[in-house]
Amino acid sequence: MSSTIKGISQSEVSYDGSALRVAIVHARWNKTVIEALVAGAVAKLKERGVKESNIIIESVPGSFELPLACSKMISGSHVQAGSNVTDLLGGLNFGGAASSRASTPAPAGTVPMPSQPFDAIIAIGVLIKGETMHFEYICDSVSHALMKVQLDTGVPVIFGVLTALNDEQALSRAGLGTGANKGHNHGEDWGLAAVEMGSHLRRWV
Ligand code: DLZ
To answer: What EC number(s) does the entry state (predicted)?
Structure first.
């Protein structure tokens, strides 16, 4: 029996992601936790049928950069991945689950080909409180800005930003805690939320 009433109830509908195109934008701060969260999100996207070639992963330095990156990726998603975005990272390990990284800039003069816009975008960051007010300012501005991006663009932005008071909280929310605090990988929930919201959006427009 569960010891808490918290948490999402599973949808009665098993949403089909096979026609969806989903972007993941992740920050690079707190790499161990980020890797687990991105891997969890990718695993659930694939489980729901999203094609590997339709999962575009991009990175930015820190969580503060997530809103602009989401905004630009959404507005640029009418051009093919690889033609207008550059992978800022490379090198993170998503346990073999990594999908298309937009890593190859198009040759100069190439006319971008139209492609399917994103049905949803998952913004993943891990903010861990330090000694100053930095944490509060970034948590507040990033959450408001990500909400603004989704309302302004009409594309679901899944809020994958952990706002943890310490390392242990962050680790257990990625399923990386120890013993009874192992926790649950919230990245999996974000992958499912992206498929559900992307599917809704196709019905609602
Ligand atoms: C500067 C900073 C600090 C102190 N902590 C974090 C953090 O815990 N998580 C995170 O994603 N980013 C952090 N950053 C970086 C900022 O988000 C941002 O990248 C820089 O201030 C540059 O704009």
So the answer is: 2.5.1.78
